[in-house]
Design goal:
alpha/beta; two-stranded antiparallel sheet; single chain
Length: about 375
């Protein structure tokens, strides 16, 4: 057996952020509820384009790859996720998801706290890897390194076109620049740590594509490329435990058809390829994937799309997931809506708490700032 067997067994979480506010009702469709048709005159999914999950719910045909995960009992659907009095602002809502602070502005990301628990001495600067051009707030904690990969992993790095002795000299100069100077204060200290950690992370991650070989063909989409990078890193056994990526924009105020279809086609085809890749390499058993969006959308469409809402849906899939519905879709009856929105009935921190306790084996309370009911979607 390879020496990496122990590291391979460590539980890994992949987070896929559906940025912009995914339309819950057109993702998990209550196709037998007449109120769905009454409210979705413009963007409702026709009956002949719905794949039934059971007698109450279905998914659009363009989310077909998720159907197999559902049939294999490896897909958990988490209904009515959000929090009471949720804002309709993208920035504030996402900030709350990232920091677990619905009342005040948080300063630490929940996954950054997880990374700190995993590696308090910063022994592995690629414990957390984010694929995207910016650092998600959920990963940001002072002193916790995050490797941010803005493009394909093959092209990742600091001055990648400079090689050999010249590269060594340039990196040494930058490392010297990043060393904190006496009396410069916490901001410069933070920049120094971040710069040095980035240089270390680059040299570690650049080996991943070199070690990667797969028969799986990923679609040529931004989210599939990010997921392929995550697979490459995971398969390289570098000790990475937290992966993050996003796909946008689910902010479908207008032109929701076919916009929503294009978004979910890219996501589900990318996820399908990703999981096939991990399975091909016998690296799927210790990975779960969480998909979430900052909020759902209004029950009644606006004639072309849907506006910002409240209660939403989240998904968790993986080999160790207990598939099924968790919680209930909030009522569509007018008297039960909150300003025209589905009323959230599952706190998002409940989802995190299950993952933290049952999967990552951490005490959820200090990470999510409280104790919350844990839906049992993990073995």
């Amino acid at each position: 057996m390879p020496e990496t067997q122990t590291a391979q067994k460590d539980p890994v979480i992949v987070v896929l952020q559906l940025t912009g506010g995914n339309d819950y009702l057109n993702t998990v469709i209550p196709y037998n509820n007449p109120l769905y048709r009454d409210n979705r005159k413009a963007v409702g999914i026709p009956d002949n384009q719905i794949m039934h999950l059971d007698k109450d719910y279905g998914i659009p045909h363009y989310m077909a790859p998720l159907k197999q995960f559902w049939d294999d009992n490896k897909l958990a659907i988490l209904h009515g996720v959000g929090w009471k009095e949720s804002p309709r602002s993208h920035f504030r809502a996402m900030d709350i998801w990232h920091t677990c602070e619905p009342i005040k502005v948080g300063t630490e990301g929940w996954l950054g706290r997880v990374a700190r628990e995993f590696d308090p001495k910063k022994e592995n600067v690629v414990t957390t890897v984010s694929f995207g051009p910016s650092l998600p707030r959920s990963l940001a904690v002072p002193g916790v390194p995050v490797a941010c990969v803005a493009g394909p992993l093959e092209k990742y790095g600091f001055l990648p076109t400079i090689q050999g002795e010249q590269r060594k000299q340039v990196l040494e100069r930058f490392a010297a620049m990043y060393k904190p100077a006496i009396g410069t204060g916490p901001v410069m200290d933070y920049m120094a740590d971040t710069g040095i950690d980035s240089l270390k992370g680059e040299d570690i991650l650049k080996v991943a594509p070199q070690k990667y070989s797969s028969t799986v063909q990923y679609p040529n989409t931004p989210i599939a490329r990010k997921l392929k990078g995550i697979a490459q890193t995971h398969l390289a056994d570098l000790g990475s435990r937290i992966f993050y990526c996003d796909h946008s924009t689910f902010d479908t105020h207008a032109g929701q058809n076919p916009g929503h279809q294009n978004l979910w086609t890219a996501v589900t085809e990318g996820v399908d390829a990703f999981m096939k890749d991990l399975r091909e390499h016998d690296h799927a058993d210790n990975v779960i994937l969480l998909m979430f969006s900052e909020f759902g959308r209004r029950v009644r469409d606006n004639g072309s799309g849907t506006d910002h809402g409240a209660g939403g849906v989240a998904f968790v899939l993986g080999e160790k997931v207990k598939g099924g519905h968790y919680g209930e879709m909030p009522s569509l009856k007018p008297e039960h809506l909150v300003q025209g929105d589905l009323n959230p009935n599952m706190d998002f921190r409940s989802v995190y708490s299950t993952i933290l306790d049952k999967w990552l084996k951490l005490n959820p309370a200090p990470i999510v700032n409280g104790t919350f009911e844990q839906p049992a979607f993990l073995h």
